[in-house]
Amino acid sequence: MTAHPLKVVIVSTHRHMLAAADYSGLPDFFVMTAPAAAGYAGPGYLKLLADLAPELPVIIDCGDDPGLALRALELGWRYLRLSGPTLETVKSAAATLSAVVFTDADLGDRLTLALDRDPEPALGQFLAA
Predict the structure, then answer these.
(1) 25, 47, 53, 89: which has the highest count of C-beta atoms within 10 A?
(2) Residue ranges of domains in the chain, CATH in brackets
(3) Cα torsion for 9, 6, 103, 100, to the nearest 10°?
(4) Neighbours of 63 (CB within 10 A)
(5) Residue 52 to residues 44, 64, 65, 91, 113: CA-CA distances in angstroms?
(6) Is the pTM above the cut of 0.85?
């Protein structure tokens, strides 16, 4: 997808999203929802979370569910993570909307922010590396 490996921070809360916003503008830096979060939180709720930091590129993780991926596209998501046998079909649909579907192979280093800790130190250390 990109010429350089992506640095991806996995967020689960509004506190994580707002902390990540402090690093917007870094090259190849993306925020991603928790694994398969579209399935349990829903693309609509996650869109509200992503809208807390509109300057950040946020990837919604749809697991292997093409229906959730298509719903996410309908709601205006521009970046999705998807796996499974229908990947190419969803990629085609996304391309018509200028959206991008990532696979695990497209994603580089990842940091999952802990729910019970201040996200700032981990973010700073991960993004400085």
Answers:
(1) 53
(2) 7-128 (3.20.20.70)
(3) 100
(4) 17
(5) 13, 26, 25, 26, 17
(6) yes
